[in-house]
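Backbone-to-sequence.
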């Protein structure tokens, strides 16, 4: 929260770039559509995100 907005945006950009790079590899590896692979990647990471930032709705 204390970092400048540009630094937060850069962090989000790096994370998204990593995920979008992993998605095609996962789709090919497990034989699914890219969208399904993207959903699986997010599902894999939800526990880590919830642990780090809490779970809010």
């Amino acid at each position: 929260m204390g970092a400048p907005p540009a630094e937060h945006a850069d962090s989000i950009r790096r994370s998204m770039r990593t995920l979008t790079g992993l998605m095609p590899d996962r789709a090919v590896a497990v034989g699914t559509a890219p969208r399904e692979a993207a959903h699986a990647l997010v599902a894999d990471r939800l526990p880590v995100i919830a642990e780090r930032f809490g779970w809010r709705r």
